Amino acid sequence: MTATPDPAITDAQWVRALAQARGLDRAYALFPEVVAAAVTRGTTSMSPLPATFSPLTEPAVAFDPAKFEEPK
Amino acid sequence: MSDLAFLTIAEASRLIRARKLSPVEFTKALLARIDATEPTYHAYIAVTEDLALAQAKAAEAAIMRGDWRGPMHGVPYATKDIFDVAGMATTCHSKLRMAHRAAADATATTKLREAGAVLLGKLALHEFATGGPTQDLPWPAARNPWNLDLHPGGSSSGAGVAVAIGTAPGALGTDTGGSVRNPATCCGVVGMKPTYGTVSRAGVFPLSFSLDNVGPLTRTVEDNAIMLQAIAGHDPADPASARREPADFTSALNAGVKGLRIGLIAHFYDEDMIAVPEQSAAIAAAVDVLRRLGAEVKPIRLSSLQRYSECGRTIHIAEAYAVHERDLQERPQDYAPITRRKLLPGAFIPAIDYLKAQQLRTALCAEFAAAMRDLDAVITLSSLDMPCRIDDDETIAKTYERQCRMPFNVTGTPAIAVPTGFTAAGLPTAMQITGRWFDEAMVYRVAQAYCEATGWCDRHPAVKVAERAASLVD
Fold first, then answer.
1. Dihedral sign of CA atoms B395, B194, B230, B222 in order
2. Parent domain of B367
3. Does residue B324 belong to the interface with chain A, where contact is any CB pair within 8 Å?
4. What are phi and psi of B127, to 5 degrees?
5. How many CB contacts within 8 angstroms connect chain A with chain B?
6. Residues of B designated catalytic
7. Is residue A17 part of a domain?
8. Which of A40, B395, B411, B421 is deepest in the core (most CB within 10 A)?
């Protein structure tokens, strides 16, 4: 069985589906053009984080400029 | 009062230490000037008058006892409203943060408090350090001090304006893709983005974890070095904080540039993108000045400006969305339209793009390190355009893509913006000076030699003061 795009699915439906997948239903309902423009940059990735997770957490792999320093 | 308004940190410090200038009188004079200029310039979101006077009195008492702590003791400053100050809202210039109250000071403000500095207040910015000048927020946008109709640069807009008009001798900003250097450029002052990890970001609301930096804006290079010295240093509360003692940023300041090898990245602004003639002519004249001072200036080639910009932008957008996802899902209407437009694309950046950008970043850092092997410093433009009208959203969006600042957020190297002159319309132009990782001292040395030779840092805008308070100011 091949995955063939359903011609009945419109761009608006696709954007809405992506927005919903990212939890942006409210943003799409209020600002559909803005969300449509944002969708042009990509697709879904991470699952929603648990409610106890702080969005200010520093990533584990931090950029380390000292790696690139060369002795004078 | 006008003399006090444009007193540099270094001059004020010398006078305060010699007990010829009272920190209390200095602070009162600046508070009066803030009162007189705010109706026009909107640089401040909150003025901490009571705190400032209490800190100034404490500094004065200590200095009179002979307990002088260093060059920031008794010197006023202000901070972008993205730094925590205990008991105050860190608004980030956003409706979303009006109810916030910080439990403690940010590390940078703690260091300045411990150095005896006096906090005048918290400054306007682009919403969450990423939006733009807009009237859709609870506080007005700061205005360009050289022409009130124009954009003052951002995101540390209030910092650039306050320093330029003499309502703070120095200010703290943050820089993720140029947010210290852009307002410095547009306002005709000096703005430093130090090496990534030099200044702790603990207690600073993040925009993009791996690109964010804290940096000072001042009217002179010497003041900038003094302020950076006061806030630099390892902080275990910031996972990216560099584990090393800060270098001495001021001792080699006046060593000159004779014999130094300086690279010129001209292809960023005359090939990859084309700068306006005013900016190009100004940096060409700056090259002549550096050569006359004895530096060897030679063109170098790096990857294209677009390559660096795309790398930084991809990381920035993805990381910023991680910070804001919950609020964009639950209350997107509370962001200004310009901020929503900038943040929402991060929801749809594929993981592979983010990883590729981080891989590319490693390659670009290696490229830059190789270029620096035979060089002491590098110069290039800051902005490719002159500031546009503050209400021209479309042009503002374009100018944010046309700049040479993001490359040094990608490399994490120090980069300073300094004025290179003024156009026929009276607007400042600027260039950047960058160097090796953690070699801020060399960057400052080149900047100091150039600024001393040209005197561009000594020029101030004609400041408009409100009539009701004019008597307090003059």
1. negative
2. 2-473
3. yes
4. -50, 125
5. 119
6. 80, 155, 179
7. yes
8. B411
